[in-house]
Write the structure tokens for this entry.
Amino acid sequence: MQLTGQGHSSGSEDLSLLRSLLDEKSPGFSKSQRKIAAYLWSDYEHAAFLNAAEIGEKLEISEATVVRFAAALGFGGFPQLRRLLQNIVRHKVSPATRMQNKIAVLSASGEHILSQMVEMEKSSISEIQASVSAADFDAALSILLGAKRIFCFGLGASKLLAELLELRLNRFGIPTVPLIASGRDLLEKLLLLEKDDVLIAMGFAKITGELVAVLKHSAQVDCHRILLTDIQGANFEAFHPVILRVRRGPIHSFHSLNAPMTVVNALILSIAMARRDESLERLEALEQYRKLYDLDPIEAL
């Protein structure tokens, strides 16, 4: 899947591509391959989240047969075929469907919902160490520490992450600009971006036109870029960002912000540690002015 400034493939386009590939290649399919084709077409919403071995087990064929099927369709491997299926699902699954799937999972267990959610969040957070390397995290931190200003992009649920960064970093005395709107409002702030600034963008589940726009513009400005994402297969590397890959959960189910928020909080505290004196001085000044102007107590840091 390529990432372009003019847009990207939609779920309907990918579904049409899958149908055309199956129709084109079907005359040469073996019996097992016809079985795979029928399953992928009829149940791609579930197949998108299975690996080759799991599909083989489900259809009672070998994993190698599933891998060869992907090659027969013209893919470099099964992961590329699965990314196509996931892109179809990503555009088709609505928030209501995600919520329905999560409720079904929670209802099927006899455990209390709070216990289940705690375990799910623990599992999600524990994946961070495998998906985000210390080297990439340190590279992102170094970029942020050298920024003249920091522009934080996030829409939808990711808006909360951008607003959290804006709140904390401004309190540390680091000029921070939120990019949390679309259309003209986004462009007006985006055009303020300069080479000495840093863009940190949060984009999950699907590529939006706004995400492409901020990455393209930041590349044209030639400022440093950091991207928090769980999107696989997109050509983000073309924009040369430092990428921190953090999963919010399965595409087909309710998404949690706890894993990416953990990474964001780690960046915030790392900045505070690296700028200890400046950060504490700014926080103390904030409290002093609150008392001076007799304003309501600020929330605890």
Notes: The longest strand covers residues 198-203. The chain has two domains: 11-92, 128-292.
